[in-house]
């Protein structure tokens, strides 16, 4: 199973592009090989369009700054580099090749801002989670990872193979008994009951986002 994790920087580029980049991000995702894409800092109106364009099932979970979302969306689509993260945000999971049969969300914290983890169960039985941990605090980031691991155990069972990826906001992510399968900077993919096949890959993404997309290929352990 090939997993991608990518923080989309609220749909912006570096240097700033000065325009809406939904089609550009969508084209990047369409062009890569993956089975599951774990996305963070996604404009909330993007996941459904991404799913349709990529031939994928999509699930999302709102994070922070989503009050009066139609107004935020109107501004973000016209001047994304002015409104920045105040355009609203969500986490999203896209799945190709099989269907999603369950979707669960856990709120990690409300302060200093709302953070969530969410996970899907695939028709093939796997549970795969996605999170965006709190930034600027090692303690908060590790706490968010710990809560995410506990939630995955509750949803999947503590002996079922699981995958958890996302923007961990720490260079030393710990999440229960999950092991790091690969990553880049603070973006990582962890798992239990899986092993990595080959090295992790950093995908070509041009100027899109301030994070790099990271891909890891996993196989179940015996």
TrEMBL record:
This is Endonuclease/exonuclease/phosphatase domain-containing protein. It comes from the Bacteria. Pfam families: Exo_endo_phos. One of its GO terms (molecular function) is catalytic activity. Residues 4-211 form the Endonuclease/exonuclease/phosphatase domain. It comes from Paraconexibacter sp. AEG42_29.
């Amino acid at each position: 199973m090939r997993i991608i994790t990518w923080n989309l920087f609220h749909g912006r580029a570096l240097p700033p592009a000065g325009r809406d980049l939904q089609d550009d991000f969508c084209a990047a995702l369409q062009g890569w090989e993956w089975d599951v894409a774990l996305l963070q800092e996604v404009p909330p109106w993007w996941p459904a369009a991404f799913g349709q364009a990529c031939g994928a099932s999509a699930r999302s979970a709102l994070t922070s700054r989503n009050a009066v979302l139609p107004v935020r969306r109107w501004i973000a689509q016209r001047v994304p580099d002015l409104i920045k993260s105040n355009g609203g945000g969500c986490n999203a999971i896209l799945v190709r090749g099989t269907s999603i049969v369950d979707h669960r969300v856990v709120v990690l914290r409300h302060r200093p801002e709302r953070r969530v983890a969410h996970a899907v169960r695939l028709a093939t039985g796997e549970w795969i989670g996605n999170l965006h941990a709190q930034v600027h605090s090692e303690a908060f980031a590790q706490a968010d990872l710990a809560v995410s691991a506990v939630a995955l155990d509750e949803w999947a069972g503590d002996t079922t193979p699981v995958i958890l990826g996302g923007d961990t906001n720490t260079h030393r992510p710990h999440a229960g008994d999950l092991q790091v399968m690969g990553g880049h900077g603070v973006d990582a993919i962890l798992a239990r009951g899986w092993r990595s096949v080959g090295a992790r890959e950093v995908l070509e993404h041009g100027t899109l986002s301030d994070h790099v997309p990271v891909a890891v290929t996993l196989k179940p352990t015996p």
